[in-house]
Write a structure and sequence with these properties.
two-stranded antiparallel ribbon; 35% strand; alpha+beta
Length: 100
């Protein structure tokens, strides 16, 4: 069930800059709450989560097909997780892979 809450890590330039500050960004289930996200990250990566910040990202519309119809993209939620000082998630390290 925990894997259904945290969908994937979000790797962007900004999120990779924040890794050095102990902040990690994930795409999470749209209806997941902060305590549920905190527990899921704690269980998956065996780290101490200090805070969780979430935001709902509205989907943009795209034009597709021959008729160039506008189709809305899905709404999704991202969570920025701050870890205890000195702890890391090796999944975000260059060349690193998390053990399960």
């Amino acid at each position: 069930m925990r894997s259904a809450i945290v969908i994937k890590p979000l790797v962007t330039e900004k999120s990779m800059e924040d890794v050095s500050k102990g902040k990690y960004t994930f795409v999470v289930d749209r209806y997941a709450t902060k305590p549920v996200i905190k527990q899921a990250i704690k269980d998956m990566f065996n780290v101490t989560v200090m805070s969780v910040r979430t935001s709902v990202v509205k989907g943009k519309s795209k034009r597709v097909g021959v008729r160039r119809l506008e189709v809305p993209a899905a709404i999704w939620k991202k969570a920025r997780v701050t870890l205890k000082k000195g702890e890391k998630i090796s999944l975000f390290e260059p060349g690193g892979e998390e053990k399960k």
